[in-house]
């Protein structure tokens, strides 16, 4: 007997709790087919960017100034295909994909670019994921004002469409539980915790900073779990998807114990291909088979909801781990020995 792994996310029924997170892989129908065959319960298209949509609107009115006013760069279309191709891809995936297809809009503020939400809904998107970017903020902009910009944007988006809306948050909020509660009151259907961020570094020779995208670090799950626990106390009924650091079935189970209803993976698919989905599902199924639960839904319904406002848990979060032991594990991977080529490959 095969253990039932279906779950509810954004009011949608997913055959499994594994969602392929927003990335360019989901633009290719054949790769999407392979990932769904491997057990993906839903897929998320890569972000369509506010800059692209602003440029599309401005280019006929102000051809000379459209690029500067919008912040558009041609490489953005190479990343996601551009607005026209994005809608065509969405419609094509809806014709050939049995799993829900979720569109992803990425922006910083309200504006006419949100009209695109109506277009993705008309082209069959099962839900919309808002990947909110706070942008670079100055010293005079308060945290309350930053939070208000997010809430205003979400309110407009929620009013525009009838399909479910999820918001992808960063870990930079002071009180993630309060933000989650406010978003739930605005009618948001789900939260994705958390948005992947680019890696910052500094080039010492040029005395400049540089920013690049990397796969999610292998030891990043702990911070995700902490954020989910905090957010769940503020948003009791919205769906939560864990995003970042899910590599195994055990990691997925931990995220769901913390309060997630589903888990998003992307980096692990880049590392291992569609087999990453199979391996995680196999781990979840093995956990359930060894437990008293007959299905994933039964397991999710039985999860405890911690009261993080209690003095005991506030004490436990910091003080108890600090004094419990003097043995501090080192999560740094053990160094490899031997010679390597310029790509890091071992030389026999």
UniProtKB/TrEMBL annotation:
It comes from the Bacteria. SUPFAM superfamilies: FMN-linked oxidoreductases. Residues 338-348 have a biased composition (Basic and acidic residues). It is an enzyme of class 1 (oxidoreductase). GO terms for molecular function: dihydroorotate dehydrogenase (NAD+) activity. Pathway: Pyrimidine metabolism; UMP biosynthesis via de novo pathway. GO terms for biological process: 'de novo' pyrimidine nucleobase biosynthetic process; 'de novo' UMP biosynthetic process. One of its GO terms (cellular component) is cytoplasm. Its EC number is 1.3.1.14. Keywords: Flavoprotein, FMN, Oxidoreductase, Pyrimidine biosynthesis. This is Dihydroorotate dehydrogenase B (NAD(+)), catalytic subunit. It comes from Roseimaritima multifibrata. The gene is pyrDB_2.
